[in-house]
Write a structure and sequence with these properties.
By secondary structure, the protein is α/β, with parallel strands linked by helices. It has helices at residues 5-12, 38-43, 89-102, 113-118, 126-129, 132-145, 148-154, 159-175, 178-188, 190-197, and strands spanning 17-20, 27-28, 51-57, 62-66, 77-83.
C-alpha cells in the first residue's frame, strides 16, 4: 500500500471509520492472484509500510479492498470501514473500485469480475466483466462504422482501452522482464504482430 493513512482518510471522506487490525471477513475486490502474500509483506515491515484495507460493510456481506491476502502480518494493519444498506451496494463497490484505481493506480483487469457483476457495474467497467475478445470485436465494429476522417483523428487519443492495455503491459513487464523485449519488437514492427494473428 503506497498511500499513507492520512491520504486514505482524506480520499474516502466522511463516514469512514478507521481501526487498527485485520478487516472483517468478506469478498475481496481484488483477484487473489494480484494480492501480496502476507509473508512477503512481513519482509518489508522494517521499511515502515502500513497494510491498509477498505471495507464496505453490509448486514450479511462485507466487500473488502486490500492489496495483501488475508492473514497474519507483522506490519501495522489499518482498516477503514463504512456501513452501507444493501440498496447502496452499487455505490459502495464503485467507491472501492475508484479507490483502487485512483489511489493505488491498479489496472481494472486485476478486479474480481464477480464483485463488479454483483454490484451491477459491468456497464461502467466492461473491461472487468467481459471477455477481451468481445471488447475488441465491439471496438472493431465501432471503428468500422466511423468515418475515415474521424478514425484518423482519433488515433492519437487512445481512450480508456489504450490506458488499460498500457497498465496490463506494464504489469507483465514488472513480473517478467522478458516482456520488455516483446513490447520492443511490437513497437519496432507493428505489422509483424498483425501477421501473427491474421
Amino acid at each position: 500500500m503506497e498511500a499513507s493513512i492520512s491520504q486514505v482518510r482524506s480520499w474516502l471522506g466522511a463516514g469512514w471509520e478507521m481501526y487498527w487490525g485485520q478487516p472483517p471477513r468478506g469478498v475481496y475486490l481484488l483477484k487473489e492472484e494480484y494480492m501480496a502474500d502476507p509473508a512477503t509483506v512481513d519482509e518489508r515491515c522494517g521499511e515502515g509500510p502500513v497494510v491498509v484495507y477498505v471495507a464496505a460493510v453490509f448486514d450479511t456481506l462485507n466487500l473488502v479492498y486490500g492489496r495483501v491476502k488475508p492473514g497474519v502480518v507483522r506490519c501495522p494493519v489499518a482498516t477503514f470501514t463504512r456501513r452501507f444498506p444493501m440498496s447502496r451496494v452499487r455505490q459502495a463497490v464503485k467507491t472501492l473500485v475508484e479507490f483502487a484505481v485512483s489511489v493505488d493506480r491498479l489496472p481494472l483487469f486485476q478486479l474480481n469480475p464477480e464483485v463488479i457483476r454483483f454490484a451491477g457495474l459491468c456497464g461502467e467497467y466492461p473491461l472487468v466483466c467481459e471477455e477481451p475478445h468481445a471488447i475488441i470485436q465491439r471496438l472493431a465494429e465501432r471503428a468500422g462504422r466511423r468515418p475515415a476522417v474521424v478514425r484518423e483523428e482519433g488515433r492519437g487519443g487512445g481512450g480508456w482501452l489504450i490506458n488499460e492495455l498500457v497498465k496490463v503491459l506494464t504489469d507483465l513487464m514488472e513480473r517478467d522482464p522478458s516482456y520488455v523485449e516483446v513490447v520492443r519488437r511490437v513497437v519496432e514492427d507493428p505489422e509483424r504482430l498483425r501477421e501473427c494473428y491474421v
